[in-house]
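Here is one chain, start to finish.
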Amino acid sequence: MEGKFNFQPRIFTALKGYSKTTFLADFKSGMIVVIVALPLAIAFAIASGVSPEKGLITAIIGGIIVSFLGGTSLQISGPTGAFIVTVYGIVQKFGFEGLAIATVMSGVMLFIMGVCRLGTVIKFIPYPIVVGFTSGIALSIFTSQMKDFFGLTMAAVPADFISKWIAYAGAIDTINPWSVAFAVSSIILVAYTPRITTKLPGSLIAILVLTAVAYVLRNYIGITSIDTIADHFVISGSLPSFTGFDISMEKINQLITPAFSMALLGAIVSLLSATVADGVTGEKHNSNMELIALGTANMVVPFFGGIPVTGAIARTLTNIKNGGKTPISGIVQSLGLLLLLLFLGPFTKHIPMACLAGVLVVVSYNMSDWRTFVSLVKNQKSAGAVLISTFLLTVIFDLSIAIEVGLLLSMLIFMRRISETTKVSVTTNEIDLSKEHGAFPDDEKIIIPEGVEVYEIDGPFFFGVASKFGECMKNIGEISMVRIIRMRKVPFIDSTGLHNLETFFRMSEAKGIHIIFSGVNDSVHESIAKSKFYNMVKEENICNNINEAIAKAAELVEKRKRQGGK
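Its structure:
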């Protein structure tokens, strides 16, 4: 349950009544996911600026931890394309040790988010922000692959978007036709394999076929200009070993911002994947438990040479579609990848870099969700503004800045819309209750006594609408003896709203005008009761409805007249 925090991994529930039939279904599904995960783990690691086996280590260790501790039944976790840009930037600036420290820090943050039950809060991040940074990451992934796609001869590729394209332009005369041929062939195979068979992923077919072709061309025909993984990395086919690293306050201060970006991104991507899985399976995941599992994985994986772990939508859906039943399928997937690392790891050195570039170009295209992007920009101006801002900031600057600015813009737009729905009005003659559906008889009207004004606040009364109330106060006259503030349509009030009411009360009191509140709901009444303003207004001046308030106001006016007051 989301309301009460339940520290119970989904696997404990799933293993009750676990049978041989269920295990066989999990085993079959897990092994099929291995086929999908293998090429992606390698490609994501290389694109992130680290060696291929680090992607496999991430999928193995991270996958086991999240499956064992997570709050979903069929989530598959490991390295994903969403982290490529952030990880690459950290590696370029701080090295792999810096990445390891940032990943551990993000894991701590995720763990705390889960313990503090923030899983449901993260789901409320506006959709345009998600589309904006996802599309931005997609474009950044596409950009990062141009060196290998075209086989450009150049120094280290810069980390930022604009510098990359400037560097590519400077090396355009070094285009390698063989690289282009392998990259284009890879895209074609990935795109068209599903039309022939859906049992094997196009990325695996592309890697197997093109690796075999590259091996023959390099070793039997003498074409040595085909760049492979072995030209850049030494592949380790051994069990991952524990490695420590130095953590200091200086490094923590330097890495706190990228670590927070990774934590927030990991939470969004993983819970989005879990939500998609719920839509297919009909289950309901425990988002807080999922964050705890994800945090634990990211605290552990770096010590074994891994990179950030998060939920993977494509692999999760593959698990579901192939009959996975419980988190055991995710553990099977990880163990299958471990066997491949141990026995087939050294053979990955023959994979052409251009082939992986082609696979990632397809990944970036699928990730871009350009149709949704265009639809939001065309049909919703405010959403389009948030989306484009988030997109551009992700591409040109940094993901953390993009999310922060996107959230700020979304909040400002939300406040503007809410403030537009809140109205403040003044009535001095009569109140037509026939327009207030169901509350009063259809023909009832209330005549407002002479010397009484009724102010009605219709909508939330918070800092976003303070200016409206302030303008209304500037225009008030000085002829009334009693002012009724009708709040039946105020669902909530914040400290700024209370401050405005207090100011209004003081202004009125200074002129000898009495204040009465009408129709205050329980939550607003509670807010008033907790404030110092409550001692000024007093409980007897808070009426249940407008009839009661008018009667009290009429009584006060008569009393003032008898006493000779205005």
